Fold:
Amino acid sequence: MTPEEFIARWRGNTRTERAAAQQHFLELCDLLGVDRPGRPDYEFEKSTRKIGDTQGFADVWRRSCFAWEYKGDRKNLVQAYAQLKQYADALENPFLLIVSDMQEIRVHTNFPNAIAQTHVIALADLRSVEARDLLRNCFLHPERLRPDATRESVTAKAAESFAKIALGLRQQQHDERRVAHFINKLVFCLFAEDIDLLPDRVFADLLDEAAKNPDSCEGMLRGLFAAMANPRGTFGPKAIPWFNGGLFDDDDVLPLNVVALAELASAARLDWKAIDPTIFGTLFESGLDDKKRAEMASLFDTPEPEARGQARLFAAPAANRGVGIHYTDEATIMKIIEPVVMAPLRREWEGLKDQIGALDDRRERANAPAAKTKLLDEARGLYRAFRESLGRYRVLDPACGSGNFLALALRALKDFDLAVVKDADAMGLPPDAFRVGPEAVLGIEINAYAAELARLTVWITELQWQLQKGLALTRRPILDRLDGIQRADALLTPSGREREWPEADVIVGNPPFLGGKLLRRSLGDAYVERLFAAYAGRVPAEADLVCYWFAKAWQRLQHGGLKRAGLVATNSMRGGASRRLLDVIVREGQIFDAWDDEAWVIKGAAVRVSLISFAKNNSTVPQLDGQEVAQINSDLTGAVADVTASRSLQENLGISFQGVTKGGSFGIDGILARLWLKTPLNPNGRPNADVLRPTVSGGDLARRRADKWVIDFGMLTEREASLYENPFELVNRVVHLERSTNRRELYKRYWWRFAERRPGMWNRLEKSNRYIATEGFPPQILCLA
Structure:
């Protein structure tokens, strides 16, 4: 059959009967030179089930290639595509979802981690070799239709554009909370228009008009935002859906200059349906975060001046998928969400299905109608109670950042909700509405930008999920308020009391890291004193800031209500003062899942972290780094012998010592050290070699020598040290200033000396012929006679 013959045969044909559709498909196969249906992996009327509905079928199905649906006229092609999306899971998620009314063929791509594209081929287009090749690839090489752009690349471009707009507004001295709120309204408008919530390109037309007349932009945006907040809003002649939900609770607009409007127009050309909300917020914030602006996205943004400094951790896989793209990858976050949030729910549902199945078996064997009714009511009661409990299930991230943990938890819960509905339908249980919505996730975040972004992330995640499953958006208003995501200091109230966290079933998250020795420098003495007072006896003063989140989660586990918790921690939590929190958890509860040493990236720097999931009681076999173990110890090892419970042997006293602690910038490079070694003798007649020492680290032994030296005045008095002129002048200029604000009086008084000289170690070394030095936290000196 030639293209002209095919076009002439089907032009104007809108017959809806099944026979006509199948004939159209068979003749199309002949035109393209591909085989016809007629085998188990390629057939007409492929039987399947829709989401939460009765049995249905796809008109044509070819495994790993496509699902194809026919409709009688063009108006129904959108409906046909929605229907195919409902079938997609049951049809093994084919790469292509194709709809046709015989006058037009629409090929929708359905590749994972790729933006969806639509190819429209009109009947007359089949004269084109390119159009026929595209359709032939649908049968033979569907992977050739994979879009080049990925969700992450589109998201990165969108985040970059809006970070530039936000920075421009901040440079105009606008309040950052107004900027955050305004930016999020713009972002949502672009997303809403691309998913057809905003009708008839209303936002795109607004931007086109603003490009011609920038002065009109502010008034037009204010009018649109007001319409989106109104149950009966209109913008010009167009009716606008009711959005509200807190995002459009006002019509506040900030002025956009020509540069910002151009950036906004550039962002508008992206495919906003493909935006990945789980990484958009992090990428947006990273676009704001350079040396000058780090305070906006991290440490020093807080509602109360005295409560400064909860550093934001944005992590990424060690090997990023794109240049300049840094974010927490989904697979790593799921290493916490899966064991803490999802696996227990799945186990509970599987157990419940067994109970319901046993009741059904008994009902089949029962003779009396009353007995049958009672068993049926019991089965339905078990199901109804589970569904109600799922609707009440809450996940809290008490350091939620821009909401990536919340978005992934919400998506996983909604997928589970859908799976339960499908299982219930197959078991003959009564149909039930979906129970999981945005209210299932709760968050606390100190940063204004991040808290706004977290709400936006959850909104978009909810709407995308509904669209991807082919479900209608019937909510009024479209957006919930999401008051469960609050901006606050997660540890202290403004009055210095411990912050109360909202009730939740589980806690997950990525709390801020800040070493115990850096607390006062970063947070200020006043805040740290209140922190110590509020958590006295629960968190050691030397512990990392992240430990306060562990302490609060553990307290909630002890007092009931909370079932499980999973948090990201610095990997130094395996030892030292920070580990004391884990000692308590292991002694009185259980670490049931952990990844002890994972590679992450924070602001471009590679770090190592631990992922720790724990509970008061847990019946599952613990897993460490994905493998079952007998137990997980507080040092995150799986050894049966818990070395963290070992005690010092009296026989080893005087053999092992902690190394010196400099407590200041005493280090110099080798070039300067050798220069000073060659200078004439000092006024005291002594060479600088007396106070200059080369340093050697484990890295120096394993790799190339770093050539570092240190100035060490030992126990000399200030006057004696000052006679070594060049070294003393440097220490006086640098270390003296550092030590002048130290809270330890001895460190300030003897500023030219190392903070901790370790005289016991030196006395023991004088009596030894050799010793072994090991690097660690802290460094150790092992003396051997």
Remarks:
- The chain has 25 helices and 23 strands.
